[in-house]
Amino acid sequence: MSKLILNNLHHSFENKPLFNGLSLSVGTGEVVAIVGASGVGKTTLFNIASGLIAPSDGRVAIDGVDRTGQAGFVGYMLQKDLLLPFKRVYDNIALPLTLQNLPKSAIHDKIMPLLPAFGLDELHHKYPAQLSGGQRQRVALLRTYLSNDSLMLLDEPFSALDFVTKNQMYEWFGAFQKDKELTCLIITHDIDEAIYLADELYVLKGLPATLAHHFVIDKSSDFLQSVEYLNLKQDVLRAIQG
Ligand SMILES: Nc1ncnc2c1ncn2[C@@H]1O[C@H](COP(=O)(O)OP(=O)(O)OP(=O)(O)O)[C@@H](O)[C@H]1O
Ligand SMILES: [Mg+2]
């Protein structure tokens, strides 16, 4: 069954139609990447999928249930990761669970076993300002994962990172995603990131925006070293720019 279905979405800002019948489906355990130029509507699509804004028409279904305009059914890592600077790493991670009114001991039992997988077991007493960019991203990812591990929407999760850290993060997050069979929808400007992490890639473009191109990504282990990989990258780039 599809984990997420966006069906025939329509939405306008200031009478300009941004979406005029956009549909997308994400299967359980699948990673789908959306790439597209700045301002094309990627974050707005996530705001609709997460229920933060209601589309002017169309439906959002999660696990087959209509959740249009209803927040709280996905884990959503916003484009601008908002770690609270005055709270320690642990309390930043605990935030979604605290908001669910879980008892402190239950929160502790959920967080502690996950810290090593996120490379945060030595860091949970620190403040965000004491962390590197990659460590901060892992805090935000763990917080998102704890808010909802059945469907994660990640809006440019690694964009603030340098090239080397980014690559380490893909490897780590890719392995974590496979291990937990997470369903993820990822927005990124980085084609390598999309190809590395995703099973399928869509290019969002135009006004109104459509998912104009769809690529299924070969996940065999030697693909990233192949000529086909470079060809795919070129094709995606042309699809974004063309
Ligand atoms: N609340 C709003 N009111 C009016 N216009 C808006 C609002 N939110 C977004 N827009 C407009 O809708 C369009 C899409 O914005 P959106 O943030 O979804 O783009 P994006 O693809 O995520 O861009 P970026 O890659 O720069 O993050 C832009 O033209 C933006 O100015
Ligand atoms: Mg955006």
From TrEMBL:
Keyword ATP-binding: yes
Gene3D superfamilies: P-loop containing nucleotide triphosphate hydrolases
The ABC transporter domain, residue ranges: 4-229
Keyword annotations: ATP-binding, Hydrolase, Nucleotide-binding, Transport
Enzyme Commission number(s) from the entry: 3.6.3.30
Entry GO MF terms: ATP binding; ATP hydrolysis activity
Presence of keyword Repressor: no
Taxonomic superkingdom: Bacteria
Chain segments annotated as coiled-coil in the UniProt record: none
InterPro entries for the chain: AAA+_ATPase (IPR003593), ABC_transporter-like_ATP-bd (IPR003439), ABC_transporter-like_CS (IPR017871), ABC_transporter_ATP-bind (IPR050166), P-loop_NTPase (IPR027417)
Enzyme class: hydrolase
Short name of any one Pfam family annotated for the protein: ABC_tran
Family: Belongs to the ABC transporter superfamily.
Name the record gives this protein: Fe(3+) ions import ATP-binding protein FbpC
Organism: Moraxella caprae
Gene name of the record: fbpC_1
